[in-house]
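Example record used in the benchmark description.
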Amino acid sequence: MLDLLRHEGELVTTMLKRLLSLPWAQEVVGFLVLLYVEGVRRSIRWEVRNGGHVEKVWAEKGAIIGCVWHGRVLMALQGWNRQYDRMVALASRSREGEIGSRFARWYKVGVVRGSSRNPDKPGHTKGGEAAYRAMVNHLRAGGCGAVTPDGPRGPRMRAGFGAVRMARDTGVPILPFTWSARRKTVLRRAWDKHCLPHFFTRGVIIWGDPIHVPADASPEQLEAARLQLETVLNDITREADEAVRGPVIEPDERLRPGTAKTPGAPA
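Model output (structure tokens):
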């Protein structure tokens, strides 16, 4: 009986994956996500902390690299203060990335598709370098970028080098931000512990201070900046969870491959 149930579960999963590979199904799901996000974010009583720097950026039409953990992307637009037309987000080439791209188009947010190579599949490219160049060109032209430093595969809440490399190559500062809500559903089985806020609850958005990376940054300086980004994002995420008295989501115990525990330490 257990084998039969397992087989039926695998069959349903396969059918859902095939369905979500169809453009019309992706469009429908993207629209449903839009309805949920718009309804929820408008119903939440939001508090914003440490928003002075980003408000200055919006007023002066400056450029930033906004960084938020993958598990907190759904309400990221609430923090962006409707500056959507200047924003380009980095998304993977997966089914989920395609649905996210269709969702983002409702806000006129630009999307660059691509992700880093999978170390388990040597020689298999996912357009990561092309996407990186497109993001760099957009930032150099004065636009803003949105990056999930732990996406698309994790480990959860462990930053990679993409954002700090962009900051080094463009001179644009990184601005970490996060959110939390008192009542929310946490997808415990998802690698990123994705957070789904409930309607009519209390929410908080917290911005970190800008992180600048010098144009001639050494590998040790890049690692220090990456660790600073990871530490700040985790600190403000914990602060947000504690502020609303909700469940605190902890980082994955695993480190990101190729990173160190402390600046300058061997990976």
